[in-house]
Inverse folding.
């Protein structure tokens, strides 16, 4: 049996607790509490250990305190009865010693906290040399993430034609009631402490509390028993505070200060606490007073800096319930990044721990660039996996930091290098190549290279789809990403195809979340957040469920780690707001948009305080929220509140467009157009006209460069609004030409996808009809207005809250035009329908729709006044028009 870890982490057949307080009874190796509540997991692992395969590997994931180590101990005990021999690896074990230790007919290899093993790829590769009948490798970790994916190509264990069956499983909540867990633990701990087991009751749990973990329940019970042993009389088990209460009792035994212990735990100098209590103590100590992070990491060695980064990784995965703990991952990495040595193994170890979106990105960029320099120097012009891996890590870090243009070169070099390396050993390295192709596709998309992005996505999806079933544990995450990428790049009219890709990606991700939620739950939220595509394609109702799920996941993640996830929560909220607005749920849309705006302001403030400026991507996102909330307020009859938000959005977008015109001019045109509408509603018609003219000029240039339906649609919107701006100024003749052009353009793009573009076409038609009516050209107005009314009727059946106001406006304009032609019966019918619609709208929001109702009532009164007479027209007619920003 190999050397076990010292202190808390040693494993074996211990029969009595080592020196220390009651906390030592939590050691899984002691098996103090009878094993129960895990029948399904144990049956699954027992079945997995059978079979004729020489080697099988399984990754078992679960958060701290969920019982991973205890399950492995119990599995080993049961397999011993079947003549298996458990071997627990240590990070320091030499690969040759691993090969020797794993000889035998049946060997169970357990790797606890596998993510912390710096040479795990070599240690597992040594199993190929072990003279054994059957080997089962059980890896225990809180999550897979990058280190797990890397094993597929980094270790020679998988580089055999026959392949090694590899699987993943996750430990969920225990299959037993909380009361039973408490009773069982109380009886077991009381027996070891030689006290009488009291009758304990479970304290109230918050409604939104996560399911209890075995470790937390056992800590809470042990805290009550230990307190009673010292004269306490408590009988209430507070599961939420259990670890903290037990830790407080353990602290009474320490001679050192909290800061000294926290430093030792951070730097790997102590192993006498369970990880969950160690992380809790560090989190409480570092957040207790300003500057404690600096105090506890002062004058550390390069090796200690690496240990601190490992500790930060565990905090990133499973943040303790301590205010401010979510910021410790970034704070610790920022503190030690410059102190990590230039030894490639140290830099590689840190970069492999964190997800494809590194956090914090700035430190990841520095570490990755140092790694690239080191491995390039030692490669001496040769292609090496270490060099290709380092280039990929650098590209990912630059992309996450909003530096897509800089990320392109290392991403391209990494992908080209992996192609060459893979030719020498396709079976071993193809997964690494596919990941590099994905990274390059992401960067290509971020730099606007849509053609290159599409080609890479097609190639990678084809490769992943054709991989054998035995590779599914490695290929499914990549295939899910590929399906999502295909969704993003489908043609505008291919809504059903995009929906199919989306559902396929979500299906794959749900299976992945069930096996490793830490690694994949945020990815699921990201995919669901991008349902904005359905909104833009005229089907917002279909997007709501997925967008709400995305918000729910990210809200939970942000609660624990705000610095890492609040920006992504803002993205989901912003898209949910857009979808809600698309179906007319204005109040809920505004609430979601305002929450997203508040989050983005906070993110930009933090970035500005960190480096003196907000990165362009963050400022772009802030402008998006400012513009979105401004439009919602303006459309709800609150233009004075919208004004400052839209002016701020325009200012940011002007700055961005000056820095990178090709990337940001489209958004600049949108802000010009939106603010123009708001100026018009405030009576600032001259300012509104100038802004819309600028928007038209920008969008004409975009159409000249690319005749995509999106650019033509946006140009048509601006032209339609430009016509309204001319009418506002009394230049009705000037309004005809741009409005006619808007209708013509919208007819063209509507041929690609009528339902998506129907609202804009209806708006342009209604505005054209209103313009002709203003010019007393009723014969020209009636056709466009009839068509607009028909389109708006269809749209209103699907989303009445969104389109009924526009339908009422078009009906009122049609009544005026029909009246001009003395077709009073038809005019009165249109006016009556408009009054019915606006009466219902005004009943819900008198402030917003009251004036519109009054206009329709006056038009109807004029029509009815002349119906019994000789057909002459009397009264003043009010022209209605609609706008869409």
């Amino acid at each position: 049996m190999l050397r076990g870890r010292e202190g808390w982490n040693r494993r074996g057949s211990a029969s009595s607790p080592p020196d220390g307080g009651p906390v030592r009874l939590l050691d899984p190796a002691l098996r103090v509490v009878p094993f129960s509540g895990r029948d399904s997991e144990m049956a699954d692992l027992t079945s997995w250990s059978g079979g004729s395969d020489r080697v099988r590997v399984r990754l078992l994931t679960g958060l701290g305190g969920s019982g991973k180590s205890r399950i492995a101990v119990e599995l080993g005990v049961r397999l011993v009865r079947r003549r298996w021999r458990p071997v627990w690896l240590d990070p320091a074990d030499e690969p040759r010693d691993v090969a020797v230790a794993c000889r035998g007919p049946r060997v169970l290899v357990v790797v606890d906290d596998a993510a912390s093993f710096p040479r795990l790829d070599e240690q597992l590769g040594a199993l190929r040399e072990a003279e054994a009948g059957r080997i089962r490798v059980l890896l225990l970790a809180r999550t897979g993430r990058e280190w797990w994916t890397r094993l597929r190509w980094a270790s020679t264990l998988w580089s055999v034609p026959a392949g090694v069956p590899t699987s993943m499983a996750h430990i969920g909540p225990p299959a037993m009631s909380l009361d039973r867990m408490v009773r069982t633990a109380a009886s077991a701990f009381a027996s070891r402490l030689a006290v009488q087991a009291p009758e304990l009751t479970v304290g109230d749990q918050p409604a939104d509390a996560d399911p209890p973990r075995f470790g937390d329940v056992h800590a809470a019970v042990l805290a009550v028993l230990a307190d009673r042993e010292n004269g306490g009389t408590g009988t209430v088990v507070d599961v939420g505070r259990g670890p903290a209460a037990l830790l407080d009792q353990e602290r009474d035994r320490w001679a050192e200060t909290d800061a000294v212990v926290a430093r030792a735990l951070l730097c790997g100098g102590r192993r006498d606490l369970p990880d969950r209590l160690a992380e809790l103590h560090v989190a409480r100590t570092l957040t207790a007073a300003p500057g404690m992070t600096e105090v506890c990491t002062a004058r550390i060695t390069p090796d200690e800096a690496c240990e601190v980064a490992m500790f930060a990784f565990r905090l990133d995965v499973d943040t303790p319930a301590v205010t401010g703990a979510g910021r410790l991952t970034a704070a610790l990495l920022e503190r030690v990044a410059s102190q990590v040595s230039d030894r490639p193994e140290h830099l590689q170890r840190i970069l492999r721990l964190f997800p494809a979106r590194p956090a914090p990105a700035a430190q990841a960029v520095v570490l990755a660039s140092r790694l690239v320099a080191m491995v390039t120097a030692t490669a001496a012009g040769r292609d090496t996996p270490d060099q290709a891996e380092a280039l990929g890590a650098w590209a990912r870090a630059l992309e996450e930091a909003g530096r897509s243009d800089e990320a392109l070169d290392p991403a391209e070099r990494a992908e080209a290098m992996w192609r060459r390396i893979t030719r020498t050993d396709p079976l071993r390295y193809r997964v690494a190549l596919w990941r590099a192709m994905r990274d390059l596709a992401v960067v290509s998309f971020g730099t606007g290279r849509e053609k290159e992005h599409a080609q890479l996505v097609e190639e990678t999806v084809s490769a992943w789809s054709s991989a054998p079933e035995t590779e599914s544990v490695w290929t499914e995450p990549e295939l899910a990403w590929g399906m999502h990428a295909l969704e993003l790049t489908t043609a505008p009219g291919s809504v059903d195809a995009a929906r199919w890709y989306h559902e396929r990606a979500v299906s794959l991700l749900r299976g992945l979340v069930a096996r490793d939620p830490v690694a994949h739950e945020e990815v699921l939220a990201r995919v669901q957040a991008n349902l904005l595509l359905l909104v833009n394609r005229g089907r917002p109702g279909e997007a709501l469920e997925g967008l709400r799920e995305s918000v729910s996941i990210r809200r939970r993640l942000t609660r624990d780690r705000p610095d890492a996830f609040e920006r992504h929560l803002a993205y989901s909220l912003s898209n949910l707001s857009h979808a809600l607005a698309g179906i007319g749920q204005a109040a809920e849309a505004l609430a979601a948009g305002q929450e997203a705006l508040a989050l983005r302001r906070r993110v930009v403030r933090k970035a500005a305080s960190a480096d003196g400026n907000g990165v362009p991507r963050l400022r772009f996102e802030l402008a998006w929220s400012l513009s979105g909330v401004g439009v919602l307020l303006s459309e709800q009859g609150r233009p004075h509140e919208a004004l400052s938000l839209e002016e701020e959005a325009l200012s940011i977008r002007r700055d961005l467009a000056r820095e990178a015109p090709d990337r940001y001019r489209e958004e600049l045109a949108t802000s010009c157009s939106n603010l123009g509408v708001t100026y018009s509603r405030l009576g600032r018609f001259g300012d509104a006209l100038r802004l819309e003219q600028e928007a038209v000029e920008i969008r004409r240039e975009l159409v000249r460069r690319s005749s995509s339906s999106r650019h033509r649609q946006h140009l048509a919107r601006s032209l339609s609004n430009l016509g309204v701006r001319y009418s506002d100024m009394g230049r009705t003749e000037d309004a005809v030409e741009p409005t006619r052009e808007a209708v013509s353009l919208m007819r063209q793009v509507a041929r690609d996808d009528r339902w998506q573009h129907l609202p804009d076409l209806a708006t342009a038609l209604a505005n054209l009809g209103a313009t002709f009516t203003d010019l007393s050209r009723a014969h020209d107005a009636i056709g466009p207005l009839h068509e607009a009314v028909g389109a708006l009727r269809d749209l209103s059946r699907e989303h009445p809250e969104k389109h009924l106001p526009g339908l009422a406006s078009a009906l009122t304009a049609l009544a005026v035009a029909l009246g001009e032609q003395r077709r009073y019966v038809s005019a009165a019918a249109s006016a009556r329908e408009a009054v019915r619609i606006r009466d219902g709208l005004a009943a819900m929001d008198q402030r917003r729709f009251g004036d519109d109702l009054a206009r329709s009532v006056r038009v109807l009164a004029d029509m009815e006044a002349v119906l019994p007479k000789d057909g002459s027209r009397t009264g003043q007619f009010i022209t209605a028009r609609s706008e869409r920003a």
